[in-house]
Amino acid sequence: xxxxxxxxxxxxxxxxxxxxxxxxxxxxxxxxxxxxxxxxxxxxxxxxxxxxxxxxxxxxxxxxxxxxxxxxxxxxxxxxxxxxxxxxxxxxxxxxxxxxxxxxxxxxxxxxxxxxxxxxxxxxxxxxxxxxxxxxxxxxxxxxxxxxxxxxxxxxxxxxxxxxxxxxxxxxxxxxxxxxxxxxxxxxxxxxxxxxxxxxxxxx
Length: 204
Description:
Blueprint: H1 24-51, H2 68-92, H3 96-124, H4 133-165, H5 170-203
Helix pairs in contact: 1-4, 1-5, 2-3, 2-5, 3-4, 4-5
């Protein structure tokens, strides 16, 4: 014996591909940003906690961090935001050529950012991670954010390869938009960490 059923609605008219938080993949990206953001806050808290244990910051005998290259890096990252935004706009317009070129350019910019970050760790901090607690904390903060750059580079290259080699599906345009959202998170999350690691020691 079977139950009689009747249709109460139709989802036929709903789009198969959406952007923003209407897309389930965007929620995955948002969740990843929440996790990474919390990790960065914990790392920054270590540096703030250690500061309370010293009368001088950096501790006596330590060189101040260099501000020049990190400041150039921040300016560089801010310039990339409108460029990344263009990729999102192109993805929402289903512009294959613009998304393909935009992802390639952004992957290149991400690689340049990785070069800046390497310089910051090796030269600008003016301390080794193994030298003392201050050095370990500085490397923890700057290095943790460096992992975001590494993850984003792999993601950008992967997405660019999909758009260059195909086959490209409509859902990939939504994925490209999510990559842009993560890049914006990467850039904006670095701003307070940059102040904490490279500017604050000069101000206090």
